[in-house]
Amino acid sequence: MPPRRRTLLKVIILGDSGVGKTSLMNQYVNKKFSNQYKATIGADFLTKEIQFEDRLFTLQIWDTAGQERFQSLGVAFYRGADCCVLVHDVNTMKSFDNLNNWREEFLIQASPTDPETFPFVVLGNKVDVDGGNSRVVSEKKARAWCASKGNIPYFETSAKEGLNVEEAFQCIAKNALKSEEEEEIYLPDTIDVASRPQQSSSGCQC
């Protein structure tokens, strides 16, 4: 009997309020950007059909409210995620400093089988603001943080101009797919630490 193919890939976007999570999702799915800021209440999601190696998938992208009062959205929200996207605003140091908190929050709530190898992707958004003159988080600093967390793929994006948004989500989809396939191969109730498969250090060959 052939293995069951789950065509739904669940992606969760986390980060402080106002870093552009909703705008990135809308730019990728709908190719639209709005200057009107509207805080997400709780959580919302959009879906996009993608094709990879002759297979069709539905990428289900969950957008979360960054306000602290919504941070504990419940285990059900995080569970089953195939990839987690961490977003910061390159013009706001606090949003970058909080990436670690968001990453830890996700690992606690989602409880992935192997936290060491679960796929994350980091986006440094709003690189277009003030022609890049108001940025306070350098690309070097962001990449160093990603490297220290197991070589997480990193992209600098502009949801407003669409810069690197498509490329970033292609990498996110590939990582989500890799995670989903590994879950499919191994029995969920089998734990074999000694023969853990070797992971690619880059996380994504984009």
Automatic annotation (TrEMBL):
<dbReference type="GO" id="GO:0015031">
    <property type="term" value="P:protein transport"/>
</dbReference>
<keyword id="KW-0472">Membrane</keyword>
<dbReference type="InterPro" id="IPR001806">
    <property type="entry name" value="Small_GTPase"/>
</dbReference>
<keyword id="KW-0813">Transport</keyword>
<keyword id="KW-0636">Prenylation</keyword>
<dbReference type="GO" id="GO:0005774">
    <property type="term" value="C:vacuolar membrane"/>
</dbReference>
<keyword id="KW-0342">GTP-binding</keyword>
<keyword id="KW-0449">Lipoprotein</keyword>
<protein>
    <recommendedName>
        <fullName>Ras-related protein Rab7</fullName>
    </recommendedName>
</protein>
<dbReference type="GO" id="GO:0012505">
    <property type="term" value="C:endomembrane system"/>
</dbReference>
<dbReference type="GO" id="GO:0005525">
    <property type="term" value="F:GTP binding"/>
</dbReference>
<keyword id="KW-0653">Protein transport</keyword>
<keyword id="KW-0547">Nucleotide-binding</keyword>
<dbReference type="InterPro" id="IPR027417">
    <property type="entry name" value="P-loop_NTPase"/>
</dbReference>
<dbReference type="InterPro" id="IPR005225">
    <property type="entry name" value="Small_GTP-bd"/>
</dbReference>
<dbReference type="GO" id="GO:0003924">
    <property type="term" value="F:GTPase activity"/>
</dbReference>
<comment type="similarity">
    <text>Belongs to the small GTPase superfamily. Rab family.</text>
</comment>
<dbReference type="Pfam" id="PF00071">
    <property type="entry name" value="Ras"/>
</dbReference>
